[in-house]
Amino acid sequence: MVQSRIVFEKATKVQFKNVEDLATVWCEYAEMELRHENYNRALQLLQRATAVPAKRATYYDKTEPVQNRLYMSLKVWSLYADLEESLGTFESTKAVYDRIIDLHIATPQTVINYGVFLEEHKYFEEAFKVYERGIALFKWPHVFEIWSTYLTKFLKRYGGTKLERCRELFEQCLETCPPKHAKSLYLLYAKLEEDHGLARHAMEVYNRATLAVPPEEQLEMFTIYIKRATELFGITHTREIYEKAIEVLPDTGAREVCLRYAELEARLGEIDRARAIYSHGSQISDPRVNQSYWKCWQEFEVTYGNEDTFREMLRIKRSVQAQFNTQVNFTSTQMLATAANELQASGGNVDEMKALEERAKKIAEEAKMDQPRTSKSMMFVKSDEATAEMEQLAKANTNPEEINIGDSDEDENAKVEEVRLEQQTIPSAVFGSIPEETQGEVLGARQRLAMKKKAQ
Predict the structure, then answer these.
(1) 400: exposed, middle or buried (C-beta count within 10 Å: 0-12, 13-18, 19+)?
(2) Does residue 313 come out as left (phi exceeding 0), alpha (psi in the -120 to 50 range) or beta?
(3) Dihedral sign, CA of 86, 88, 94, 97?
(4) What is the pLDDT of residues 49-88, one digit of tens each?
(5) Residue 411: its pLDDT value, please?
(6) How far apart are the C-alpha atoms of 149 and 185, rounded to whole Å?
(7) Is the pTM of this model over 0.70?
(8) Per 3-state DSSP, what percentage of the chain is helix, strand, and coil (rounded to 5)?
(9) How large is the average pLDDT for residues 152-168?
(10) How far is 456 from 443, CA to CA, in rounded Å?
């Protein structure tokens, strides 16, 4: 034992290349004393190792000997703190942790260990101050573990009794929080509002979370948001959330939300709204790639639609497919043209360039064929079935009292045929007492009156 101590003492004076090599010697020296149950001697050794030298130096200043930089070694300080927790007093352990933080060599785990140590001794406010010191010491993303532990411990300790203080802590945390770590903190904040605050505030937190998280987590965040809104405010309150999700999410997520939204409207009996949602989502769904989407829409039309709505769905499907064909061909042409230019600039093979040019021409021709063809004269094919249906419809709608008035143009242009009228003698009874010599003449009123008086 004595010889071992002599060897270790000599080793502590060696000029090592790195500080960690000297720190390892001191740690092994202290552990040897611990194995022989010399606890006080082990503490004294670590006190010597962590003592500040007369000439201070930074950890990475290689112009100074490693002995002058040993006091900045976290490895020695961590072993010293563990021994103080096990063998020392509360005050001595607290002093060691404070010294580590003051030297700015603490890690987030060191801060958390210090806070847990204080909580075990019922110094909760002291522990919260330690967390705040650690937050000021580190930046994102290293401070995430400290924030998470701090907020969790604070909620567990005070719950809703210090709601405003807790809200301020969350706002301070989320102000600079990167999207990668935002999800768990926003969910914790929303849970606080649901348990101790207002449901309206919780909905605002969920709404902010949908925009704060990374794009790959937005769909999951919207799903949680919709579920909580359904439980708190009812299913009809989720329509605005669905519409915002469709607007914010990328195509893959928006397509999934469209299917869920349409299914919801179908359950509520809003068939027209569900059909409009399917139609909106179809614009981002390639029929060749997203076959499941079109299958769901087809099943919906079979269940709730009719022949006209089914035909409209097929028309939209053809239109969307033609649109995607044009986009894909145009993009492929651009990619091939870029590849050809790069190959030409790098002095590539002529055959390869020719193959790329032919491929680009072929794709351009396919894109032209996909475009709708237009002609000056539109020709329609007459359908016998349609003609028969129109005749039946005309018969059914015929009004028996309708007067058939001919076309005035036809009457004007028609030739007038001459009609011969036969003359017949008028019977004498028609004229009564009028004399025969005056029957063929046209008499005036005075003559007729004179003849009447003469007859009397």
Answers:
(1) exposed
(2) alpha
(3) negative
(4) 888 887 777 777 777 888 888 888 888 888 889 888 888 8
(5) 47
(6) 11
(7) no
(8) 75, 0, 25
(9) 89
(10) 19
